[in-house]
Amino acid sequence: MAISEPKSANLREVLLFAFNWKKSAIEAHRMLEEVYGDHDLSKSQCYRWFKKFQSGDFEPYIEPRGKPHQKLEDAELRALLDEDSTQAQEKLAKQLQVSQGAVSLRLNSLGMTQKLSRWVPHELSERQQERCLVTCEGLLARHEKNSFLHRIVTSDEKWIHFSNPMRQKSWGLPGQFPKQTPRPNRFGKKAMLCLWWDQPGVVYFELLKPGEMVNTSRYEQQMHSLREALNEKRPKWREKHKGGPSFCCSPSTGSATEAHRMLEEVYSDHALSKSQCYRWFKKFQSGDFELDNEPHGKPPQKFEDPKKQALLDEDSTQTQEKLAK
Questions:
Q1: Where is the composition biased (Basic and acidic residues) (predicted)?
Q2: Which of 106, 253, 264, 297 has the fewest beta carbons under 10 Å from its own?
Q3: Which tens digit of pLDDT belongs to each residue from 195-204?
């Protein structure tokens, strides 16, 4: 038996009948397909009509608007972005002959976001870029052959504020101002956290007292504490450096400091100054082990007037006006 080709309005009335019959959009589409074959509505059209009925609009003679057919190809968009990723959406739309909204939708579907360029100290030349590439390849090859990352200990310092207010969300009516939260006081009470870590994790940390800063003696003490922490937490490091020199950021500085401490303990005021020890160790590192020649250094400033020199020895921060009085 031949079936007449249905009109779209008749098919939509059938969808309304199926909706009132508590059928789903898939079941309604299956019914139309079994009866009318290729002349039925598509599955997406059935979904849109059922969504229209569920919203309370039961008028079957006004076609609901659907998503337009997307003609923009992702490959073309990617090719343009590979050429120049700073192009605006309007420029991309003109080249692809589509709307700016279509470009925006495709960019969002690809997971792309617009990011501001990052400042760098200076622009590298081609030679510098090649040198960086060669260095990185060499380090990577060395790492693949014999990993060295676990032997690197990194340090950093960070201010820890005692007061850290957090903003909280609150419920309110439209037009009503939310609760106020004062900004953190960056000049308030705070302490400095000194942290050392390697590839496995944190090795040693130290929280300084409020107002305390890291000076030479404090940093030297931290280096010795770090050595003890490495001996305790990193057995491989302890075995490799067993009986070795004291751990410090600079071998010359650490050795010169220890030598000055030893001389000070034995000879007291007759020991060499710390700066003299540094100059001698620097002389030894250069390969000159001659003890008769004093290493060249900046001589201490002395005044011909012993009274002014005595005043400066008491307080070297005095101004010229105060010394003149």
A1: 293-311
A2: 297
A3: 999 988 999 9
